Amino acid sequence: MNFSLLAQFVMVLLKGSVPISFGKSTTIPAAYGELVAMGGITTAVKRLLIATLGTIFESKLSIPKTRFFLKVVDVSTATGSKL
Q1: Which residue, of 17, 30, 66, 77, has the fewest CB within 10 Å?
Q2: Cellular component terms, GO, for this chain's entry (predicted)?
Q3: If you compute the radius of gyration of the chain from its CA atoms, what whole number of angstroms results?
């Protein structure tokens, strides 16, 4: 999949001022992300996104991969039309 073609439709927001309690700890860094898509998010794509984001968060922000949660929502309807 060529993610560069989709980059124009991506918004990223990092907000460090919001405390996160993940696994009963607020002292160890954690991250939560939401991805809203209009189709194309297969199980394989979802796994690739989670792995890639986990690696970026771990290497750039020192957030362990085990303390990252990604919520993925596909807003396409069952008929294939987009909302």
Answers
A1: 17
A2: extracellular space
A3: 15
